[in-house]
Amino acid sequence: GAVVSQHPSWVICKSGTSVKIECRSLDFQATTMFWYRQFPKQSLMLMATSNEGSKATYEQGVEKDKFLINHASLTLSTLTVTSAHPEDSSFYICSARKAGIGTEAFFGQGTRLTVV
Amino acid sequence: QQQVKQSPQSLIVQKGGISIINCAYENTAFDYFPWYQQFPGKGPALLIAIRPDVSEKKEGRFTISFNKSAKQFSLHIMDSQPGDSATYFCAASRSRGADGLTFGKGTHLIIQP
User: Fold this and answer.
1) Of B96, B97, B104, the CB nearest to A43
2) Nearest-CA neighbor of B47 among A104, A2, A6, A109?
3) pLDDT tens digits, residue range B31-68?
4) Alpha carbon of A9: minimum distance to chain B alpha carbons (Å)
5) Residue A49 contacts residue A57 (beta carbons within 8 Å)
């Protein structure tokens, strides 16, 4: 159990367009979802934390108007990269956490975004 | 400010040997310390995690050693196998994992047959 699925696995888009990435918890309800960004051969950096039904909390330096996060249900969160530019090209990874104290978060397989 | 420092950046170990990766943290509010394994193009997978009320935790070939006073923790992989070749990340968070994770920079581990 505890499977987190991201869609798409990879996407190529033109500069100036918007891209939506979905993160689903397939077999559990996720009260909290996290979005991370990973550049090639680098570490994961937390972008934002979203709780179901609430506005996302963004980390310092992350533009909330550029990276729109929606967590409308207990099994789905979406990240929309608006007006994408080549520097937004990266590996975006979500994780989902079950309700309860001390529970671990499970990661999706990631989405490779390339902006051309 | 890097809150979790990880070393070494890369590591080569012979098959059957012990792989040791170290991490140090700065934020004393951290109370959850997981280790993740990541293969190229994939999301990270949890290996083992520890909380600061214990000094060691073992699961199969993986052991975490935790030194609260030194603010350090390490991963030991016993009997390392070629299939263990991957990138390993240590991480830390507050609120017993309820907050997002702060990751170390990663260690690229190669197990030579």
Assistant:
1) B104
2) A104
3) 999 999 999 999 999 999 999 999 999 999 999 999 99
4) 9
5) yes
